[in-house]
Amino acid sequence: MESWNEYGFELEWLEAARPRDSQHDVAAMINDRSGEFRYAHLGEEGRAMDEILGDADPDDEVEAFQVWAEHLSKHLTFPFAAAVSEFQERGPLQAGDHVKVHGIETVDDFYGVIVQVRCSRNVSYFPLCDLKVLDPSSPNHDLVQLYAVWFANR
Q1: How many domains, the chain?
Q2: Neighbours of 52 (CB within 10 A)
Q3: Alpha helices in the chain (DSSP H)
Q4: What is the pLDDT of residue 3?
Q5: Mean pLDDT over residues 121-132, rounded?
Q6: What is the CATH number of the domain that holds 139?
C-alpha cells in the first residue's frame, strides 16, 4: 500500500537525472513529516489522531500511550458503561461482557491504556482498546472508538 511518502512509478516513465538530495536529506525530511501525516490515510479519524498526538515521537509507542492517557483523562467522563468488544484468550472477561469503566489506571507498553472496570462485584484492569462504549450518543463513545482505531493502526 502506498502512503504519503511513497509513490509507484513504471520504469518506462522515468529518465535518469542527477540526485538533488542525499539519502540522509530524504530520511530527515521523512522523519520531520512523519508525525504530521502518520495517520492521514485514515481520513477524518486520522486528522483527529494526529491532533491528539501532536509532537509525540512517532517511533515511541510508550510516549504515544502516555499522550493518549492524558488526553483521555481530560476528556472522558467516568464512570461509563461499556462492553468487551474483542475476543479474549484468557481472563475473567469475555467478548460481550458488560462493564462499568471507573478510570484510567496505568499505561502498559504492550496493551496501551489500562482502565479499571467493574463487572458485577469484581474489579478488573482491562485494555481500553478492547472496550466499546454502550451509549452511542455519549461523548465518550467516539473518543474511545478513536483510541481503539488508533491502537489497531499504530
Answers
A1: 1
A2: 20
A3: 23-37, 43-53, 61-75, 139-153
A4: 64
A5: 97
A6: 2.30.30.530
